[in-house]
Amino acid sequence: MSPVEEFDVVVIGGGPGGSMAATLLSDAGKRVVLFESAKFPRYHIGESLLSGTADLMKRIGVLETLENDGYIKKYGVEWVWGEQREPWKVYFKDALAMPYDYGYQVERSSFDELLLNNAREHGVDAREEHRVADFAIADDGTVTVDYEATAEGRRGRVTARWIVDASGQGGLVTKRLHEQQWDTSLQNMAIWSYWRGADRGEGLDRGNTFLPTFSDGWWWFIPLRDDITSIGAVVDRQAFNENKGIGLEAYYKECLEKTPEIAARLEGAEQVDTVRVQRDWSYIYDKFAGDGYIAVGDAACFIDPLFSTGVHLAMLSGFLAAATVNTVLDKPELDRARVLEFYENAYRKEFARLRAQVYFLYSGHGSSKDSYFWHARSQFDVPGLAPEKAFISLIAGAFTHRSWYRRYLERLDVPEELRGTIEGIFEGKSTGVGVDVETPLTAGSAVIVDDLAIDGAYLREARSLSTPDGAVVPLSPALEALLAGADGHRTGTQLIDLLVESGVSTPDQAQALVHEAVSYGFLTTAREAPDGVR
Ligand SMILES: Cc1cc2nc3c(=O)[nH]c(=O)nc-3n(C[C@H](O)[C@H](O)[C@H](O)COP(=O)(O)OP(=O)(O)OC[C@H]3O[C@@H](n4cnc5c(N)ncnc54)[C@H](O)[C@@H]3O)c2cc1C
């Protein structure tokens, strides 16, 4: 056995979740070792990304590389879903306050290798063909990880202060420490292959994902580089079991014949790979993090690929996990359990609302695109949000935590159009509830909650305001001054003047804030009986 080496953090797994977390931890000065059992490039399914993922890629400096390497840009998604077989399209540009209006379609072999090499450039000691065989977490918090360097036929051990479990569906740490809760209503099978020369449509639509349903399930059609298209069916487990006797190739062809929209796109195209199969059963562990470890990506939870959210969730949780681990290791003054709970809640919330939307589309409720849009609206805390915008935001990966949107306004490099979009949302909402700035206003029903917020590489204490229906906004000094001034006598206009005179806001900010506070119910007209801020 090689001598024991010492690190701050051990990351198990070099998929998107592991590379994201490792890169950001290393950026924050941690000594990070990452063990990956495979030799890259290695095959992996999960090729369609979201526009929200582009922002995460920008954070670790790989977005430009994707652009230069010619990965296919995905501007939207086309569906044949619902009672009508009329196709309908949605475009990421119509999502709520997202900085990019496109995602990418990626061959995972090269994409994952790019992320892993990028982690190395950021100082991560990333070791391929190193399989983690065992781990232990001592009472004093030290973690020990045993690995096998498979190509060298050697074993080794490292110690560290924390483990990031990014081992994918294998869930090396979570499987041992926690209960894996299978979702019995989402237990499908995926069968797929690759084609050259499929018809991908015109213009910007050439990069779209296409998702038509058929009698046994639904198809994904994902355009990749070099004129290759990934075409796979997600089928009901029972239908798969009943048909697998005829052979995988034959069943795949039969499914194609049952779907005229896909068959039409394959006229003159050539199948260039065998048919592959994988089960895609959804699950979630009962806990994602504890003393000495945190799980990201599929090691924590996995959701049916209907919305192509796996890589996005892996990278988003990698980002959240890095801030969480940095905080636990460097800020002992913050209660550890609370910090871990922040991570757990944030990741679970993203997972839960996507799963709710997947259930809704599978259950056939309403069976029209409008019903899908309206359901998505209930997944956001943003009053007055147009249903279609809510649906697109959800499948674009818009993060529900409002500090995410705020961040863009606070950053100096926010493009003007984006600033306008975000401010426009606040103003747009206010028109929906009819704010009359000449009416006396008073504080509405809201409670102040102690919260944590992401601040650079760390989490910090932050207070938020929460309404009974669950809307949460950060309690800024300006909002605090506004609520204190809303005594039931001052009108909206007078409150705006008060904020400006006291120097906490510019006139534009004060106006937007009053509108926002009214639309969220933090301020109500003095005629309504308020409970007051407690
Ligand atoms: C049929 C199907 C279709 C999908 N389609 C999409 C899609 O279109 N878009 C999308 O975003 N997602 C899709 N997904 C989901 C996506 O594949 C995953 O959610 C995503 O890859 C999760 O990333 P991760 O980093 O958590 O894990 P992974 O990408 O699985 O990476 C885990 C890594 O850990 C390594 N590892 C495992 N055990 C060990 C060990 N003991 N020691 C060292 N290394 C280890 C593995 O070799 C692997 O490289 C799909 C999934 C399925 C099943």
TrEMBL record:
Molecular function via GO: monooxygenase activity
Family: Belongs to the flavin-dependent halogenase family. Bacterial tryptophan halogenase subfamily.
Protein name: Clorobiocin biosynthesis protein Clo-hal
